[in-house]
Amino acid sequence: MTAGTLRTLHVPGKPLVLPNAWDADTAKAVEAAGFPVVATSSAAVAAALGQADHEGASADEMLAAAKRIVDAVSVPVTVDAEAGYGLAPADLAARLKEIGAVGCNIEDTDHGKGSQRPAAEQAEWLAGLRRAAGDGLVVNARVDSFLGAPDEQAVLDDAVARGRAYLEAGADCVYPILVRSPEVLAEFVRQVGGPVNASALPGGPGLAGLAELGVARISLGAGLWRYLRGVLEGTLGEIAQGKLPY
């Protein structure tokens, strides 16, 4: 599948669902379950490497892990490239294409400063990525305005402005990560005027509910990894007590 075909799977109201993988084995499981695309989770990949999320692992480590995933499956892979690892847009585009990725997720937080980049600066960076990648990468531009926001309505205008700017810069989809209010998410979808990626969260609207809100893409992010990690911890606890749970 090419990036162009991947773009066609971003359908508002009939979203592409992505259970994010973190290694070759989990990527194979995603493919075997019938999902047409594999997405990576930076938090889960970094943890599997013994590193912290938010660019605690180097670009070389993360992209090498992504390449192992690309090589393990026959479906296209979109890579969570965090904030770009300090690479120039053209360098990141080249490295993603080199490993065979057809998409990427890019967040607008500067992890060195611990804050969001100015919207204009991020839009300029995304425009450079689009110029370098041409049509060869599906760019999912993350909007981090809602992260830790005590009042989601209060940051909605900023998030919408960023989403519009990122789409104008060439992003294919925008991702207001961790929006918890269905009403705020619906308003973001209505105002931003382009494909929207939503997070599937515990206690949220669910996959069908998110589709009804008009999103074009749904990510589990690190949710699947956290769930399975919890199962593993519980199982190990049973073994530590002398019980074999299987």
UniProtKB/TrEMBL annotation:
Matching entries from InterPro entries are given as: ICL/PEPM, Pyrv/PenolPyrv_kinase-like_dom, Pyrv_kinase-like_dom_sf
Q: Which domain of life is it from?
A: Bacteria
Q: Which SUPFAM superfamilies match?
A: Phosphoenolpyruvate/pyruvate domain
> What's an example of a GO molecular-function annotation for this chain?
catalytic activity
Pfam families listed in its UniProt record:
PEP_mutase
Protein name, as recorded: 2-methylisocitrate lyase-like PEP mutase family enzyme
